[in-house]
Amino acid sequence: MSRRLERKRALVTGAASGIGQATAVRFAAEGARVACLDTNEAGLARVAADVGEAVLPLPCDVVREEEVERAVAAAVERYGGLDVIVANAGIEHPGDARVDRLELAVWQRTLEVNLTGVFLTCKHGVRALLASGGGSLICTASPTSLYGLAPGQDAYSASKAGVLGLARVMANEFAKEGIRVNAVVPGFTLTGLADRVVANEAWFRETVAAIPLGRPGEPDEVAAIMVFLASDEASYATGGIFVVDGGVTAV
To answer: Model's pTM, two decimal places?
Structure first.
């Protein structure tokens, strides 16, 4: 590894699996110390065991403000501040549907995790970045935040569009205070969120057929973009939408 994140202090939500885990592992390999937040304590323990002392596992539910505030404070106390925040935690609710069939509880839960959870991570994360004199804030969005390409996933699509809108306004608000804010847009990636598609052979073939590169993405491929945005190499990048989707949104 190039150690592009040497001496960086990072916090990643949804770090026990998928893109969040891959990002935390890659950050550590690049020289960062990483606070890993997730509700999955067993998953956090596995990440910490695999990576070692560069990882600080912090059980946290991103929809509970007191837990987010406490976790950010713990990371700041351990590391003396934070330089990078990755607001990545999210869900795809199995009850998601088109609006006329969408239960209010499913809508509310999806927005609670995917949008309110990102808001709370950004709220307390930005405070830590400001105290450190600036840094990088990265939000995980989705191709569904750009185009209506996921019929039947109306709550998820709306939540991710909200994330994108939040990232853009924050980029404008905090630029003069030394904080860069960018959104990463992963396409169909082989994480736990993709298991339902992978398990359905016809659905999987249809999904892959719509990808110009002809294959799903890997979490490490998304993590590579996260590393760039967290690094000083991205010093002039803010307000950007960094798509990692095999070309889906290009056609």
So the answer is: 0.97
Which residue is it, tokens 């910490």?
A: 48
Taking phi first (over 0 means left), then psi (-120 to 50 degrees means alpha), and beta for anything else, what does residue 68 get? alpha
* Cα distances (angstroms) measured from residue 127 to each of 4, 76, 124, 130, 225: 24, 11, 5, 5, 24
Residue ranges of domains in the chain:
9-244
Query: CATH homologous superfamily of domain 9-244?
Result: NAD(P)-binding Rossmann-like Domain (3.40.50.720)
Residue pair 70/9 in contact by the 8 Å Cβ criterion: no
Residue 146 in tokens: 């750009």
* pLDDT tens digits, 69-110: 999 999 999 999 999 999 999 999 999 999 999 999 999 999
Say whether 96 sits in a helix, a strand or coil.
Answer: coil
Q: Which residues are catalytic?
A: 156
Tens digit of each residue's pLDDT (9 = 90 or more) over 129-182? 999 999 999 999 999 999 999 999 999 999 999 999 999 999 999 999 999 999
> Distance between CA atoms of 15 and 23, rounded to whole angstroms?
8
